[in-house]
Design goal:
839 residues; alpha/beta; Cobalt-precorrin-4 Transmethylase, domain 1; OB fold (Dihydrolipoamide Acetyltransferase, E2P); 5-stranded mixed β-barrel; 24 helices; 32 strands; 42% helix; binds iron/sulfur cluster
Length: 839
């Protein structure tokens, strides 16, 4: 299907000039408070006449009705008598007679001044023909058909044959042939105006290549009717309409070629309205029932269709507009050159030249033909268009206000100041509480539903505003909310208000999403990443929102954190080297050594998942985005009152926790270990600590020294054994090892232990007790003491000091430390995110 608009269609130069002069005159009259009248309707177009009335130009039938007024003579012209009468009665006469008509008047007046007859071909009832006849000084014979030719009197052999300016050219030629048969020497002047000729020739050509023709113009316009007749003779499917609303419902153009033309008195906007409506009809016809239904469900899409329509319309409509401005020149050029030469039928060349000379001598035709162009500012045409639009011009996609005149069950009727009320279906309403008399804003979505109804929509207006908002949010990056609707291949369909939006699966979360369906029904914070203005479709991302929010939260956390701060966090996960704590978008690590003063606990012994904790910010590394936290630092240290709890000289029963070559560490309480140097393990000299002690073994120890600052406590099993105030018999070192070595060391281990335990005990405790006590005292002081002293002072001195600090550093600390370094905080994000999305 295609639509072709005739290049020369709509206002001719004569009509355009008359309208412009009339509008200007009406404007001046309003300013001067004068009445403005036209002798008969200015042009034969009801829409334009109504518009002119609004401008104050009222049509009257006779000059006497314009007494004291400014009177406009329309383009058809009037008789000499009427003109003179008007001059005598009217305040002022503005002669808008078309130059072509005026030239015709002068031609017949000059030819007939000596009483020669005139044969005037045309409609004898038409104002132009009546007016022309009034300028003839001799007899006038009207001819419309062959019968009229045959009825002419013999005196017509001396007549000059002229034509109504808008007469059909083909008919004129045929009649002239008959006239020549009757009066071979008759003079002929083709006075059909070039605007009419051009329109008719174009219309004929367009009709021959079109399946259907639409002629736009007033039904009382002679030139429009002639145009219609011309088209009809070449294209049987020709219709005549005054405006778009007159297009019949059966005028469905699917699969056919449509030609459109318009009479010389047809305003441009009437033609454009018809072209636009035809495009609308075509679009609707091309839509499948499904798409129509979809369109109803998603009104936003209508805009796309309308926009497409507008784009497609652009060429023909613009072409028409261009024509409207330029066609005067195009029409007048041939007129000036050919007005007389081509009008004269070729066979009558010599005779026509005589007429031509007379005509030219009689008046400056060319000058007058150009006059309308010079005197017709385009602004006046716009004034008329504007005036018409005030009461009747509407177009598809236009938003206007209307008054509710009827509220039905399924639709309401709205007065939109148009010839027909608009229908607003409830499915297209936004404000459901509408009452008769309310003024509401509506959009025209169709000029004609096939039954002459104008179809309106409120939802389109809302959708347009919504779309505009979405476009703005897309451009600014502002977040929007959408609701997950359906899981589809590759992602999720969501709706942001009423706009269909696709979220690719890779944009649903910061991690891989296996079950897209989990987002159906969820309200999602989204960012629009693609926008198709034509299809009104969106693509959005949730992942970007999450990433941006995380980055923002991270920046905020980093901005407020400082080393030494105590902050709250949530324990999120555990590793073998510590626990990660969420500080509100950023995770920090509590290393295992900073969890508890008791180094024998695991993170899970202290924390529960999602537990809120207060932590101390130990260190910040922005470059590596690492935050070191401490928990134990906020807890009381067990060393705070060790001197009171473990006074020097007291004897305690505790367990061995670690064996080292230089001694055994004995836990006094969690976090407080004391060292029993190898020299203090037994009353006898031993080679290896493990020969006597095993981890887990309970022993009695005497507190030799307490140094809270150095976190060092020296213990002695030997002195506990030798202390007379303590009954060590139930805590003989090695006693409780009887069972332990059985499995691992077998009989060989058991036996020596028993021996070691029982025999030395007797020696030490019962018999040799005195001696070893006395003598070793000396040794301790003088000889043997040197060595043990060295050992006690140096090794243990390092050990207890270093041990709490270094031991963990060597064993559990070193490795986790590496892991802390390698384990980037970022890596925790996916898990954290997983949890988030699972929520
Ligand atoms: S149709 Fe021709 S004669 Fe009539 S007003 Fe237009 S230009 Fe003038």
């Amino acid at each position: 299907m295609s639509i072709e608009v005739a290049k020369h269609a709509g206002f001719c130069s004569g009509v355009r000039s008359a309208v412009n002069q009339a509008l200007e005159t009406a404007r001046v009259c309003r300013q001067k408070n004068l009445a403005c009248r036209s002798l008969g309707p200015l042009i034969n177009n009801p829409d334009a006449v109504k518009a002119l009335e609004k401008e104050g130009l009222i049509a009257v039938e006779q000059p006497k009705d314009a007494k004291g007024c400014v009177l406009i003579i329309r383009s058809h012209g009037v008789t000499e008598a009427v003109y003179n009468e008007a001059l005598g009665l009217a305040l002022e006469v503005i002669d808008c007679t078309c130059p072509f008509v005026k030239r015709l008047h002068e031609t017949v007046e000059n030819y007939s001044k000596d009483g020669l007859p005139i044969v005037l071909i045309g409609d004898r009832r038409h104002p132009e023909v009546i007016g022309t006849a009034g300028w003839c000084k001799g007899q006038v014979h009207f001819v419309e058909n062959i019968k009229d030719v045959n009825a002419l009197p013999p005196s017509c052999k001396d007549a000059l044959v002229v034509s109504q300016t808008t007469f059909r050219l083909e008919t004129f030629k045929r009649l002239v042939e008959h006239l020549k048969l009757r009066f071979p020497g008759i003079l002929v002047s083709n006075t059909i105006c070039s605007a009419t000729k051009v329109r008719q020739e174009e219309a004929r050509e367009l009709a021959t290549r079109s399946d259907r023709m639409i002629v736009v113009g007033g039904k009382n316009s002679a030139n429009t009717r002639k145009l219609f007749e011309t088209c009809l003779s070449w294209c049987p499917n020709t219709i005549l309409v005054e405006r778009a609303a007159d297009l019949p419902s059966h005028c469905r153009p699917s699969g056919v070629k449509i030609g459109i033309t318009a009479g010389a008195s047809t305003p441009d906007w009437s033609l454009k309205e018809v072209v636009i409506t035809m495009n609308d009809i075509e679009k609707i016809d091309q839509m499948t029932p499904e798409s129509v239904e979809e369109q109803a469900q998603e009104p936003v899409q209508q805009e796309a269709i309308q926009e497409e329509t507008a784009q497609e319309e652009a060429v023909p409509v613009e072409a028409v507009q261009e024509e409207a401005i330029q066609k005067e020149a195009a029409e007048e050029e041939p007129v000036q050159e050919e007005a007389i030469q081509e009008e004269v039928i070729q066979e009558e060349v010599i005779q026509e030249e005589v007429i031509q000379e007379e005509a030219v001598q009689g008046e400056p035709i060319q000058e007058e033909a150009q006059e309308p162009k010079e005197q017709a500012p385009k602004g006046d045409m716009h004034m008329l268009q504007e005036a018409v639009s005030n009461f009747e011009r509407i177009r598809t996609g236009q938003t206007l206000e209307g008054k509710v005149v009827l509220v039905g069950e399924d639709e309401i009727s709205v007065n939109i100041d148009y010839k027909a009320d608009g229908l607003l279906k409830k499915s297209d309403m936004v404000d459901e509480d509408v009452q008769v008399g309310d003024t509401i804003e509506v959009e025209i979505i169709r000029l004609n539903d096939g039954e002459g109804n104008v179809i309106l929509s409120q939802r389109n207006i809302v959708n347009k505003k919504l779309w505009a908002e979405l476009v703005e949010k897309y451009e600014t990056g502002e977040y929007v909310e959408g609701i997950g609707k359906q899981a589809v291949k590759g992602g999720l369909i969501a709706f942001i208000s009423n706009v269909r939006t696709f979220i690719p699966a890779s944009h649903l979360a910061r991690h891989y999403v296996e079950n897209v369906g989990q987002f159906v029904g969820q309200t999602l914070k989204l960012k629009i990443i693609e926008l198709d203005n034509d299809k009104k479709r969106l693509v959005a991302s949730r992942k970007l929102v999450l990433e941006e929010e995380k980055a923002k939260a991270k920046a905020e956390v980093w901005a407020r954190l400082a080393e030494g701060d105590v902050v709250k966090g949530i324990v999120r996960r555990f590793t073998n080297f510590g626990a990660f704590v969420d500080l509100g978008g950023v995770d920090g690590l509590i290393h295992i050594t900073d969890i508890s003063w008791n180094r024998n606990v695991s993170p899970r012994d202290v924390f529960k998942e999602n537990q809120e904790v207060d932590v101390l910010v130990l260190a910040l590394d922005p470059e590596r985005e690492r935050i070191s936290l401490g928990y134990k630092q906020l807890q009381p240290t067990p060393w705070d009152d060790v001197e009171e709890k473990y006074p020097v000289g007291s004897i305690l029963v505790r367990k061995v926790v670690r064996i080292r070559p230089f001694g055994a560490f004995i836990e006094l309480e969690p976090g407080v270990d004391g060292l029993c140097h190898i020299s203090q393990v037994s009353v006898n000299r031993i080679n290896k600590v493990e020969d006597v002690l095993k981890p887990g073994q309970e022993v009695a120890v005497k507190v030799l020294n307490v140094d809270p600052d150095a976190k060092r406590i020296s213990l002695s099993i030997r002195e506990a054994m030798e202390d007379p105030s303590f009954d060590y018999s139930t805590f003989i070192p090695g006693d409780d090892l009887e069972e332990e070595p059985v499995e691992e060391q077998g009989e060989e281990v058991e036996t020596p232990v028993k021996e070691q335990v029982e025999e030395p005990t007797e020696e030490v405790v019962e018999e040799p007790a005195e001696e070893p006590v006395e003598e070793p005292t000396e040794e301790q002081v003088e000889e043997p003491v040197e060595e043990p002293a060295e050992e006690v002072v140096e090794e243990p001195a390092k050990e207890p000091v270093e041990e709490p600090a270094e031991e963990p550093a060597e064993e559990p600390v070193e490795e986790p430390a590496e892991e802390v370094v390698e384990e980037p905080v970022e890596e925790q994000a996916p898990e954290a995110e997983e949890k988030e999305s699972e929520k």
